[in-house]
Amino acid sequence: MQRDKNFIVIFVLVILAATGTLSTDMYLPSLQNISVGLSTTMQMSQVTFSAYLLGLTLMRLVYGPLADRYGKKKMLLHGLTIYTIFSIVCILSINIYILIIARVLQAVGICAVGVISPAIVKELYDENDSAKVISYIVSTIAVTPLIAPFVGSYLQENFGWRANFIVLSILGVFLIIIVKNMLQETSCVSFANNFNIKAIVKTYFKLLKRPIYMYYVVIMALMFGGIFSFVTSSAYFFMQLNHLNLIEFSKFYGFIVLAYIIGNIFTRIFVARFGVRNLVIFGAGSALTSGVTILFGHNNINFVVIPMMIYMFASGIIIPNSIAGAINICSDASGSASGLMGFFQMAIGTLTSLVASLLEKNSVLPMKITIFGVCLGVFVCCMLLYFHTQKELKLSLAAPG
After folding, report:
1. Closest by alpha carbon to 310, among 223, 240, 396, 225?
2. What value does the mean pLDDT of the chain take?
């Protein structure tokens, strides 16, 4: 029975994670056709992507407190309903401005998934098991961007750009059904009537003052930042600097993503034996090795792909364990903790991506410097985390009783 319950929870959360990623990437091959179909410019079509990311970033600070007070399942269903409604609005858009607004509100809905899923995991599993379950979720998030453009290209070629949003609308309805029928409500705070902006701000300030929580959050966000930086520069490095075609580019990109999945598998095997904190520290050492190699290595493929595979392997270890470590020390506000963590993830990821793109200037040096800086920052935070947890352990052992 317990195994069946675990399978159902993991199945639901993995499908939710895949839908969130598909919503971001699947329609990208249709941007040019959207600009033609809605009689606008390519730049305006690209705004639909930026608008979606904006909605994802800002709403992460809102869903957490709402989920803590009104229930995770309830807020997840509300978010999926909003997502489905505005996916349908995307289908029916008659100009680019309606599509942009619909994409923002689509993101407002699906953002519930990214915030509430880790909080649900925290309330159903202990710290080590949380890391295992989250590793399944982040594996899905890593693989789906590889598949999404191919699905989007097929839909565009055979049915047109609106077909992307038809598929997402159908997925939205499907998710509402399975969440409603297969996912049980977890705990929520009983003082829902006292919910207000002041309470939200107070909760977030309390979280910011928790050193161990913030170490885990910054470590996780920095690792995502390195990934964002690489993704931003990868097309230039592979296709312009090294003259690879799209198939060759996809092959090397696939190797790098595979390393991330192997890191997730490593977590599932060893987290029970070594614990969340120790795996994060091990991953930080691996990441720093890759950062040094990337910074001082040559610009040929092997000196970037192999270190990036090590970096992604480390990310596959660090990210799920950092999420589990952060959420599990905030049992009194798991939704808010997940929301604040997601906000830092998107903010630092967007910042590092922006730095890499603005400073690129026909060079991969900004990407190299960014990734090295990320790895160094993660390593320093891990050392601080280690000393802080050791200090707390000594204090607890010294305490009477």
Report:
1. 223
2. 83
Q: What global pTM score does this model have?
A: 0.76
Distance, CA of 202 to CA of 183 (rounded, Å): 30
From the list 233, 212, 242, the residue with the least C-alpha distance to 328 is: 212
- Mean pLDDT over 298-315 rounds to 88
Distance in angstroms (rounded) separating the CA atoms of residues 59 and 55:
6
Delimiting residues of CATH 1.20.1250.20 domain(s) in the chain? 1-183, 193-401
Task: List, in sequence order, the alpha helices (H) in 93-196.
Answer: 96-124, 127-159, 162-182
In eight-state DSSP terms, residue 238 is I
Q: Which CATH topology does 1-183 take?
A: Growth Hormone; Chain: A; (1.20.1250)
Q: How far apart are CA 312 and CA 256, in angstroms?
A: 7
Encoded tokens for 330 = 């905030």
Residue 204 φ/ψ, nearest 5 degrees: -65, -40
Q: What's the pLDDT band for 175 if we cut at 50, 70, 90?
A: very high
- Taking alpha carbons only, the member of 232, 215, 196, 160 closest to residue 325 is 215
| Residue 94: pLDDT over 90 | yes
The conformation of residue 399, written as its DSSP 8-state character, comes to: S
Contacts by residues 364-367 (CB-CB < 8 Å, ≥ 24 positions apart): 364/233, 364/236, 364/237, 364/241, 364/299, 364/304, 366/233, 367/229, 367/230, 367/232, 367/233, 367/237
- CATH code: domain 193-401 is 1.20.1250.20
Q: What is the reported pLDDT for 169?
A: 96
Q: Is 189 left (phi over 0), alpha (psi -120 to 50) or beta?
A: beta
Mind listing the pLDDT tens digit for each residue in 350-388? 777 667 656 655 677 888 888 999 999 999 999 999 999
